[in-house]
Amino acid sequence: FFDRIEAAPADPILGLGEAFKAETRTGKVNLGIGVYKNAAGNTPIVKAVKEAEKRLLASETTKNYLTIDGVAEYNAQTQILLFGADHEIIANGRAKTAQSLGGTGALRIALEFAKRQTGAQTVWISNPTWPNHNAICKAVGLTDKPYRYYNPQTHGLDWDGLIEDLAQAQKGDIVLLHGCCHNPTGIDPTPAQWETLAKMSAEKGWLPLFDFAYQGFAKGLEEDAAGLRLFLQYNRELLIASSYSKNFGMYNERVGAFTLVADNAEAAERAHSQVKGIIRTIYSNPASHGAATIALVLKDEALKAQWIAELDEMRGRIKAMRQKFVALLQANGATQNFDFIIEQNGMFSFSGLSPDQVDRLKDEFAIYAVRSGRINVAGITDDNIDYLCESIVKVL
Ligand code: PLP
Ligand code: TYF
């Protein structure tokens, strides 16, 4: 049966990790996959998480199945992070959340749900985007259409192109938006632009899908939800795929959540029953550990404060590295202006490096980045930044 099967292409980002692992040169630098690293170049366990895990281990009494939609407290806390504790949506029961296997799992549930239950056929996706967005659309049987997002001349948002393209979106189409820290560009709409999009969505009857994988990495937990909350002022129905992989540093625990917002509690309940039907046929019900840990952190005032402080530290370190990176490129003789890197949000920077330059960085200097020119700023440390900047200036 298997003789004629063709090999699948490697994931452009995960494949890079394999290549980096196999790299034998000393001083190699990994700016590929979007994983946070501290000043020492490690991805440690968040202290608030470690403490919660200790408590959980001591207090757990059963390994019985969870319900299909997972840890109830985790889902409730997810809504608080998304909407704010006092939001009308929570009070009126208009949102339902299902724990998912990471943000990826949440996106899959979201698109399966939209395809089966809303009649959607088309998903508008920013160009560029995280490649899995397009792949999941195809897997679900939806058509993906690109909307312009990035202007290589200004290294900023292509606002006119974005509006022109999204003006073609039809009623019932899904429009996928990055909640904050756009992957791969690091460029987010301004509050005024978010509001324009939110109004446009309501007028045209889009079904917005927010991919929220970096809450807390742009400006702060609350600030980063501003775009989503603006949309909710104008749109009664909306989908959200949350991921806690980055902001809790729990990459391998697969912690995410799918949330749907409906016009009223009764509609939300019915829609959620269909979501549970989807989950049942994929993995029946989720794993407990990661979600129970996060619920414990978010429920405990002191642990939550500690987590927020650690998240602030991650964000602060990345911002500091952006500053230093730009200053050192200039100091090493780069003639281009790289100030735009300082303004970008989150882990990623669209550096403007060409595929050829990225290839040269790998071949000549053992520096790994995504061929699009995306670099993971969180991979920059005081130990590698001099070598990195010298090498980049050599390939410019
Ligand atoms: N969405 C975006 C934009 C991402 O960058 C990622 C990264 O991993 C995800 C979703 C998925 O996250 P997870 O690892 O939780 O599946
Ligand atoms: O974009 C990134 O680097 C992260 C991590 O298939 C990632 O979002 C990359 C590729 C992938 C899954 C996660």
TrEMBL record:
Lineage: Bacteria, Pseudomonadati, Pseudomonadota, Betaproteobacteria, Neisseriales
Cofactors named for this entry: pyridoxal 5'-phosphate
Molecular function terms from GO: identical protein binding; L-tyrosine-2-oxoglutarate transaminase activity; pyridoxal phosphate binding
Cross-referenced Gene3D superfamilies: Aspartate Aminotransferase, domain 1, Type I PLP-dependent aspartate aminotransferase-like (Major domain)
Quaternary organization: Homodimer.
Keywords: Aminotransferase, Pyridoxal phosphate, Transferase
Name of the gene: aspC
Pfam family, one: Aminotran_1_2
Record-listed E.C. numbers: 2.6.1.-
Protein name: Aminotransferase
Every Aminotransferase class I/classII large domain range: 27-392
